[in-house]
Amino acid sequence: MPLARLLHRTTAKHPRSLKQRDALIELTADLIERANLEVKETYRFQIDRQDIVIPNLPDDFHGFTIAQLSDIHHSPYLSLEHLTEAVTETNALRPDVIVLTGDYVTHTARYVEPCAECLGGLRARFGVFAVLGNHDVWVGASAVTQAFERHGIPVLHNTNLPLYIGGRFIYLCGLGDTTTRNHDLVAALKGTRRRDVRILLSHNPNIIKEASLAECDLVLSGHTHGGQVKLPVIGAPISYNRHGKQYTRGWAQMKKTQIYVNRGLGTIFLPIRYQCPPEISLLRLLRTPDQRPT
């Protein structure tokens, strides 16, 4: 029997239950409204901006911007339509470089090519660079790498490259996935020096301790989805990080090494986010906190 009809029959016999009926209707409407808001939040991308102060940053890189996308998980949970919207919003930021930090698909290789083709539409002054995540390895590291490179996105697998402005440079270092033990930090930093500015792309933020020992300046990661669900008081019930919840989302620091953990675009297990919207990051490199780019 429909709920409204049942309520009508009940209140017709028991007028005193009118208040109870109204309270139940109000509660039901509130729950439906909240559910609709959470479903919308799952696909409403949020642009988060963060300044990163690196004292030894070359002068020519002061104000340099990095857009970061992560954990797309293209699947029935995140469509090409939504991914195309994210690409458009990222391009509108006009970043100097775009980095992609893993987990582009989830369960099957049939999503690899459409995802790579869509991400091939990203544009930045210094290009677009990627590293792989655990799901990419499970689906097929070679297939993902080849698809990305066909669409103009180099995959940095335990290697690095310099980005030059006016004869000065910073290093972009790409690490293989740590969950599947495809990482080699020594190889990723080979040829760089501790006094060089080194930005490490690592899908999994668990690398923060090793990166800190190596004195990397900045680590850009994903993997955690920001917890995907953020509950009152306790925050994210699952952090996916052995070093603590402070490395689950956003900016943190371990000794001299800073880290930024992107919440990702897609979802895993269940297609829902709560108080944890999908994220497009825009990071701006500065020499000092009070010096703004001209």
UniProtKB/TrEMBL annotation:
Keyword annotations from UniProtKB, A to Z: Hydrolase, Metal-binding
UniProt keyword annotation of Metal-binding present: yes
Source organism, top-level taxon: Bacteria
Calcineurin-like phosphoesterase domain segment(s): 65-226
Gene3D superfamilies according to UniProt: 3.60.21.10
Pfam families cross-referenced by the UniProt entry: Metallophos
InterPro entries with a match to the protein in the record: Calcineurin-like_PHP, Metallo-depent_PP-like, Metallophosphoesterase_sf
Protein name per its UniProtKB record: Metallophosphoesterase
Organism: Chloracidobacterium sp. N
Top-level taxonomy: Bacteria, Pseudomonadati, Acidobacteriota, Terriglobia, Terriglobales
